[in-house]
Amino acid sequence: MTELSNPQPVAPPRNQWLDVWDQFKTHRGALWGGIIFVIIIAGVYLGPLIWRVDPQFLPQGRDFINLRDMRPIWVGLFDSSAKVSWAHPLGTDNLGRDTLARLMMGGRVSIAVGLTAMLLALFLGTLVGVVAGYVRKMDGPLMRLTDLFLALPLLPLILVASLLFREPLSASFGPEGGVFILIVVLIGITSWMPTARIVRGDVLALKEREFVLAAQSIGTSGSKLIMRHVLPNVLSPIMVSATLGIASAIITESALSFLGFGFPPDFPTWGRLLNDGVDRVVSFPERSILPGIMISLTVLSVNYLGDGLRDALDPRIRGR
Amino acid sequence: MLTFTIRRLILAVPTLLFISLVIFLLLELAPGDPMAQVPLTVPAEVKEQMRLALGLGEPMYIRFWKWIVQFFWIEPQVLIDHYFGTTFAEGKLRVISWQTRSPVMDIVIQRLPQTLWVVGTAYVVGILIALPIGIYSAYRQYSWFDQAGTFVSMIGFSVPPFFSGVLVIVIFSVWLGWFPSIYDTTLVVDSWESFKRQLQQMIMPVMVLALQITAQISRFMRASMLDNLNQDYVRTARAKGLGERVVVMVHVLRNSMIPVVTVIALGVPSIFGGAIITEQVFKVNGIGQLLITAIQANDLPMVQTLTFIFAVLIVLFNLVADVLYGLLDPRIRYD
């Protein structure tokens, strides 16, 4: 009888995240989504270092007449009478402010709102989900609360609340800071419910697993158990809902700004710029279309990113 | 099933009461003054009397109770009077809008047909487009049609209605001049000519809303078809020699429709909410636009009633979805 061979691993164990990255790479849409999202973020945050034009600069006197209502550079290709200049490649608005610089500034605000609102929603959702899944007594009340939030008409309530709390917050944090906090908090507390439900379901399933029992039997305290053993295992659904959360937060913020319930007029976000352009969309279609394309492109790339992450983080799909 | 429905209906009452309380308390915090539009020449004591006439002098709980009574007791009576010519509600105080000083429900009833026409048509059109797309892309998974369908629905998810609306206005009414950019609600359809005009002005808002609905429902349809296509009963059906058409369109489709039908039911209220933006873009004076103007004008009874109507829709269609699920899928037993 031959000796049973004792197989030794030939390669060192692979990091889990390398597997995830390998799977992620095969999803071409997700890869491109990620690349475009990074380019957009770099463009709006690092762009002002290269394109040093003040987005709030208002030309005075004769300059005002000369510099206002400029068209983007490509309009000159088919309309020789159009007012174009390489100094303002995307044109200027009706007050002579540079569109490219304003798009960058608007993008910074829109993406910052999206990221912070997503973080807040994620924090609330994970907290509610973990507590509801882990503490049996809290499960009933917290899930009823989630159902109740899901039954609220969210967009009308956000509209109402954004008008109600604008004044007091603006008074204490300044007009821009107050509105920023207001919108982030409003979006955050109205979009945590899907995350909470997913996390609760996963925690309920994990709680019955052996490794949790093992951790409990060596005397791990409740909070340690959650932080060390439960949370890392629910990380993948949280990451997927994080990417989708950025997308919906950016859309909600733009919708608020579009309806006139968002940031003040001299403080551009993409939604605000789009709304400002609507009145003169016949003569200057680019003023609405450029911010609109930026919103759609960002959201599209984030959605593809989330799609790829969902596949890459799912061990049942990975490796196929 | 009946007991389940009744139990859910009874449970919906405290939910709705609580939601109405939440909305009421939120509006109670409103710093806006309904007397802000009154000229400064009006003396302060007259203003105070006007305020009392609006019912603002009462404590909070009395006003909440009054609103509840007006909405749940008096308004249904008005409706009965309207249909049967009775006089139950005569002389009783209804929910009055501060903006127009007319009953809120009358205005809502005036505005509702516009919203229902646009949103309803868009929903039906969206579903009719989405179902075949979902079925075919699941049947030919990873084909070019499936890839294109995925891309189109990604666009439908990502392009917000206020951008796609502006975009179709620029393309179809500014450059091509095919459709009017503003929805004319005074148009009376009584001839072939006016019917054509109505159709023309409806195309763009319906297109914008239908794109979003199609994106969502075709994804659900595809996923649900994919779940069922690999099941054993499909192999059995093929093995006993049934045609491919019968297998897919009868066996698989019927089972795949179960979750899709509930998603369709669940989507109805959110479409009403999303239509707020589309109505604003195309200047349709439906209930979404009514809500926006009411919020801007500090018309609290109107905002309260409209938001509550949205909440009722959500709770109602959640219930409908649950009941439909139980009716369609015999494996699901609620009792």
Explain this structure to me?
- The complex is a heterodimer of chains A (320) and B (335).
- With 320 residues, chain A is mainly alpha-helical.
- In chain A, 70% of the residues lie in helices and 0% in strands.
- Chain A folds into two domains: 50-97, no CATH class; 105-320, MetI-like (MetI-like fold, Orthogonal Bundle), CATH 1.10.3720.
- Chain A starts with 15 loop residues before the first helix and ends in a 7-residue tail after the last helix.
- Chain B is mostly helical.
- Chain B is built from eleven helices and no strands.
- In chain B, α6 crosses α9 (244-282), α9 (244-282) packs parallel to α10 and α9 (244-282) runs antiparallel to α11 (300-328).
- The chains are: A mainly alpha (320), B mainly alpha (335).
From the structure above, extract its key features.
heterodimer, A: 320 residues, mainly alpha, MetI-like fold, 70% helix, globular, B: 335 residues, 11 helices
How is this structure best summarized?
The complex is a heterodimer of chains A (320) and B (335). Chain A is mainly alpha-helical and 320 residues long. Chain A has 15 helices and no strands.
CATH-defined architecture of the domain at 111-296 in chain B: Orthogonal Bundle
Termini separation of chain A:
37 Å
**Category from helices, strands and their pairing of chain A:** mainly alpha
Most strands sheet of chain B = none
Q: Which radius of gyration of chain B do the C-alpha atoms yield? A: 25 Å
Strand/helix succession of chain B = HHHHHHHHHHH
Percent in helix of chain A: over 70%
CATH level 4 superfamily of the largest domain in chain A: MetI-like
CATH class (first level) name of the largest domain in chain A? Mainly Alpha
* Biggest chain contact: A-B, 42 and 43 residues
Largest sheet of chain A: none
The overall average pLDDT of chain A, rounded, is 83
Q: What fraction of the residues of chain A are assigned to beta strands by DSSP?
A: under 5%
**What is the fold-level CATH name, i.e. the topology of the domain at 111-296 in chain B?**
MetI-like fold
| Helix percentage range of chain B | over 70%
Global morphology of chain A: globular
Please state roughly what percent of the residues of chain B sit in beta strands, choosing from under 5%, 5-15%, 15-25%, 25-35%, 35-45% or over 45%. under 5%
**Oligomeric category:** heterodimer
